[in-house]
């Protein structure tokens, strides 16, 4: 069995580009751990940060761990906070932004056909 | 797209039996939402509570949202807290218990062959 660890122990990858700001991602559980059916990633969005607005043929299952933010889906921004759950179906346009001073930390799961990060 | 909601808005199911204590589970994202590849459940383990010690042919991907507890795996108890990540492979014996005064809340994902709750 894989060692239990705190997500902060995993080396983050900073996202760079003109469509993303202040976002770091970590693969918490993935294929390298023997997880064949889905991959758990953890994202930290800093103050003023946002993920790119995009869509793709795989779904997301999202759980918000800390902070306050908004998720763009169905053409509008929807508030989320620690404890919020979001299902983004395949091909749905989406984006997440931090609206508070705290880091917005969320768990985001994808199926095996998706890139892990 | 499914409405975004806080997990506490979902009706919990209390677990009953002599091998489980003070555990409530919720299906946050499942087949009824169109999630075909994996199911997100959220468990609350109250003070002094524990899940049953068991094993089954499907894996768990676990993220601890709040509280302090221990996960039994590899034949011993391992401490976890908010932010901990645990991968329980198929057929591995496991159990989770709350060791603090706060609710131990964790997200636990399973593949589609597993019961949702």
Describe the structure.
The structure is a homodimer of 117-residue chains. The first copy, chain A, is mainly beta and 117 residues long. Chain A is 0% helix and 51% strand. In chain A, the strands form two sheets. In chain A, strands 2-3-4-10-5-8 form a six-stranded antiparallel β-sheet, with no helix packed on it. Chain A has a three-stranded antiparallel β-sheet with strand order 7-6-9, with no helix packed on it. In chain A, a hairpin with a 2-residue loop joins strand 6 (68-73) and strand 7 (76-81).
Q: Low-confidence runs of chain A (pLDDT<50, min 5 residues)?
A: none
How much is the radius of gyration of chain A in Å?
14 Å
Helix and strand string of chain A, N-terminal first? Answer: EEEEEEEEEE
Number of helices of chain A: 0
Distance between the termini of chain A: 23 Å
Number of strands of chain A: 10
> Into which percentage range does the β-strand content of chain A fall?
over 45%
| Oligomeric state of the chains in view | homodimer
Q: What percent of the residues of chain A sit in helical stretches (DSSP H or I)?
A: under 10%
* Main pleated-sheet profile of chain A: 6 strands, antiparallel
Nearest-integer average pLDDT of chain A: 96
Structural class of chain A: mainly beta
How are the strands of the largest sheet of chain A arranged? 2-3-4-10-5-8
- Major protein interface: A-B, 39 and 39 residues
Q: Please tell me what the overall shape of chain A is.
A: globular
Outline the secondary-structure elements.
2 copies of one chain form a homodimer.
Chain A: E1 5-6, E2 13-14, E3 21-29, E4 39-50, E5 60-66, E6 68-73, E7 76-81, E8 84-88, E9 95-98, E10 104-110
Antiparallel strand pairs in A: 2-3, 3-4, 4-10, 5-8, 5-10, 6-7, 6-9
């Amino acid at each position: 069995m894989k060692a239990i660890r705190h997500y902060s122990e995993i080396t983050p990858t900073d996202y760079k580009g003109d469509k993303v700001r202040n976002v770091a991602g970590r693969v918490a559980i993935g294929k390298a751990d023997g997880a064949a059916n889905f991959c758990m990633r953890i994202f930290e969005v800093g103050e003023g940060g946002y993920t790119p607005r995009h869509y793709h043929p795989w779904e997301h299952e999202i759980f918000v761990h800390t902070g306050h933010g908004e998720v763009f889906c169905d053409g509008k921004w929807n508030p989320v906070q620690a404890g919020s759950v979001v299902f983004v179906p395949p091909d749905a346009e989406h984006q997440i932004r931090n609206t508070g001073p705290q880091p917005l930390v969320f768990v985001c799961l994808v199926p095996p056909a998706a890139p892990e990060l």
